[in-house]
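Re: the 96-residue chain
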Amino acid sequence: MSVSLSTHVLDTAAGRPATGVKVELLHGSDQVAVATTDADGRARLAESLDAGVYRLVFYPPSQFFRRVELELELADGHHHVPLLVSPFSCASYRGS
């Protein structure tokens, strides 16, 4: 099986990608990957993972949401998990 993961972070208050956001990928207590979003707010975290449960942790540019953690069950294929964040809300969805 081949499992890969990417993300992007959008600052919905500013209406633009969030650059320089630290993103961690954890499997159990092990850090599998760490990345920082680029000028387009995107980060590629892993190209070759085992299927399983992972935690995706964002440190967004919000004065309220200091850390956003998502628990994901990754199966075969590519997964893209965006984060939309503002000072007032945050949301995520399974992208394509």
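The mean pLDDT is 94.
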